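@channel sequence for tomorrow's demo:
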Amino acid sequence: MTNTEQIRTKKISFILALSVIIFAAIATYFTLCHDINIMRITTPVILGLAMSIILCGVLQKFFYNWLTKNPIHFYFGEQSSPVIESESTTEPVCIAETKPEQLHHVVRNTTEPVCIAETLPTEQLVDSSEQEYSPSAQSNQEHVVPDCSNESHLEKYDSILEELKEKELKRQVKVMDAIREYVTIKTAPYLSKEAIATLISNIEYMACDQPELYKPIRSNIDNPLRSPGLRHLAWNVGERLRVPLAKRAVFIKESFPYELENASHEYLRLNLRDQVASQIPIDVPEKGDYRFHLETDNDES
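structure tokens (generated this afternoon):
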């Protein structure tokens, strides 16, 4: 409560107290000196005033609540001109069907960028802008107003995501084609046609993270694959498929259980890319590429 309100409250309290004392003194005087009981006269008056004050307060509160929920606009001979409510807006104002005489009012009152969806005729736009702005102010306004497109980047999110998925699928198809060609060329001297088909299926299972579907393979007895060549084969293929080393070790161990009988998964994981001479050398892909160096390997062999 402020000082002004405290002073006002004290004055009202003093007046009420003084009124009660004066009324009590007058009533006592008439009762003692003239044997007149003024309480019979004043009591109905006081009760009537009290009831009127209470009723007035109740009605005021009722009408205030009713008008708050059901607003009624009273016009006493004044007509308000149509105003575009853009003074307190926090969103961009889109001028789609604004009349020429209202255009300068919208640009002047808005505090956010103006998005022009449908351009007005050139003569009308120039006439309305010349009345309010100088050439320098108009040039500044053109730099402030951005050119909004109908479709935002967020609305293109789904289409962009679909394009990325489609590009990744196309890349995976090309990677698998390159792996099939590489595996067939490199393992043909050591595996039968059926064994190569099973090996390619195991590679596809590794790419899909389905190790439970691996099938065992055995290389040719007269010309078998050795452990170093198998380790390098697993590293070369897994590097194109971006598979972790542990999964590459499981793949090659489950695919060639006879040739890698004495090699553990941990040993294979740590020695997939070693510098030991082997039937299948290490083939490191170029940065951002997936292709194998088949011509270089053939020249070296």
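heads up for whoever presents: Confidence is low (pLDDT under 50) at residues 80-100, 103-123, 132-139.
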